[in-house]
Amino acid sequence: MTLPETESPPFVSAVPSVAFPMAPFRLSGTVYGCLMNHRPALAALGEAASAAPYKAAPKAPVLYVKPRNTLAGDGARVVVPADAAELELGAAVGLVIGRTACRVREADALSYIAGCTLVADISVPHDSFYRPSVRFKARDGFCPIGPRVVPLVDPDALTVRVFVDGALVHETATGDRFRSAARLLADVSDFMTLAPGDVLMLGVSHGAPRVRPGQQAGIEVDGIGRLNLHFVAEGVAA
Amino acid sequence: MKTARVAYAGAIHTARPHPQGLQLADGRVLAEADVVWLPPFEVGTIIALGLNYADHVKELAKELTVTTKDEPLVFLKGPGSLIGHRGLTRRPADVQFMHYECELAVVIGRTARRVKAADAMGHVAGYTVCNDYAIRDYLENWYRPNLRVKNRDGGTVLGPWFVDAADVPDPHDLNLRTLVNGEVRQSGHTGNMVSSIPALIEYLSDFMTLQAGDVILTGTPEGVVNVNEGDEVVCEIDGIGRLVNTLAGDAAFGVNA
After folding, report:
1. Which residues, 6 or more positions from B31, have their beta carbon under 8 angstroms from its beta carbon?
2. Do residue B65 and residue A52 have CB atoms under 8 angstroms apart?
3. Which of A24, A165, B204, B253 maximizes the CB count within 10 A of its CB?
4. What ipTM does the predicted assembly reach?
5. pLDDT, tens only, A176-208
6. Which of A238, A34, A15, A22 is CA-nearest to residue A146?
7. What is the pLDDT of residues B13-37, one digit of tens each?
8. Confidence (pTM)
9. Closest by Cβ to B140, choosing from A4, A60, A70
10. Is there a domain that residue A15 lies in?
11. Do residue B80 and residue A67 have CB atoms under 8 angstroms apart?
């Protein structure tokens, strides 16, 4: 059998274009999400958080990777898969790393952050956080980012609003976290070094809204801006 | 054809095997120990399989509450975890169970979206060897396997060679083994994968577009044992390569015990 021609190394990746007017000027394409950092999210599980299969509340940050196929920019068209009636639209503030962060101390951690951006952390809704399939979070286009990186304000005191078809459907703040931005970066960089341009989500708030095909959505944070999205049914032409 | 990426004398080079070690594209012939070995290709998304060998599933049976019956157990890793051949991986002093995992790494060469198993191998550029370390002390039951176990700096060793797919007639007929300080501690055969390479590409490409440079770490067979500071861990796959890694202690990384 003759193999079709493949692209040979070196391979190239594509990263969404996000206005990033300070060093390091571009995103690396590496994006980490963080779950269960919002106190009400864990509280909502009640006794279940300490029962099987979890057995205990999380100790280390609950992290996951949003791979490069999920990345998209402002105005992204997000495909709702045919087997999902709706999607969960997590609205997160993304901490954009400015310089190599390895085992940083909490007291210094914010100085490693170049700025903040908006991240739409989209999932197929799922009830178990034990070992969820990557197809819930790693689908093509499930991580729009943008529209810009802005110099750090106070990442722990931001109001995050989500609009669906023009109506405000969710309003939360970035506070009330088990780990503040600085504590999170300290704990994460204790075992994994983050590079300039990497994005670490501060973690979505409890009660993320659901969206259906045909809906328009926007995520807003004062001082960072608005990230616009629209949701389409699988199989619908662009 | 086999190629490597190495750093030597102030630059990064492509290298080929040579009877005395390796030869850079510019003609220089060098011994294996004279260069710094990098992961042998520019790595995109790192996709790893849990419990993809039936014998390893049995080995871990006591702690399992899920099975691969419904779909492959896939997790993702970040680029900071990567290091090349002959590198050093940190073993924290205060853990009880850090183990290697010898795995066949499948490198995607052509964009794959909704590819059927029958067509999947045409999207494979080639193969390399992976040693995908884990520290079980840090295992928690939220988004398993949690990144503190599986996404540590220097915990994903890749190399030494990228081997063209054309040179590997049957990737499911390869013996693999791990040697710790020269003693065989793990051995298996790629024919025992629960989900084969074409099945994995069909499964993954159904929801995520695979791109050139993405790599699928296809899981490990039974025989994972604790390793300690100073141990030399060699992962071998016949016809693909012999990947050497050494465990270093906290002090080498400036960490006070």
Report:
1. B20, B21
2. yes
3. B204
4. 0.93
5. 999 999 999 999 999 999 999 999 999 888 999
6. A15
7. 999 999 999 999 999 999 999 999 9
8. 0.94
9. A60
10. no
11. no
Chain B residues in contact with A195 (beta carbon < 8 A): 79-80
Pairing status of strand B241-248 against strand B87-90? parallel
Nearest to B136 by CA among B145, B127, B128, B125: B145
Q: With 50 as the cut, is the pLDDT of residue A11 above it?
A: no
Burial class (CB in 10 A: 0-12, 13-18, 19+), B246: middle
| Domain of A132, in residue numbers | 31-45+60-233
How many Cα atoms within 13 Å fall on the side-chain side of residue B242? 8
B142, A133: Cβ pair inside 8 Å?
Answer: no
Q: In chain A, how many domains are there?
A: 1
Q: Give the tokens for residue B203.
A: 């499964």
Domains of chain B, earliest start first: 1-38 (2.30.30.370), 39-253 (3.90.850.10)
Measure the CA–CA gap between A122 and A211, rounded to whole angstroms: 10
Is residue A3 pLDDT above 60, yes or no? no
Q: Is A100 helix (H, G, I), strand (E, B) or coil?
A: coil
Taking the C-alpha atoms of residue B230 and residue B223, their distance in angstroms, rounded to an integer, is: 20
- Please give the structure tokens belonging to residue A223: 């001082």
Q: Which residues of B touch A10 (CB under 8 A)?
A: 41-42
The 10 Å Cβ neighbour count of residue B181 is 12
Query: Tokens in use for B235?
Result: 């992962």
Q: Is the CB of B42 inside 8 Å of chain A's CB atoms?
A: yes
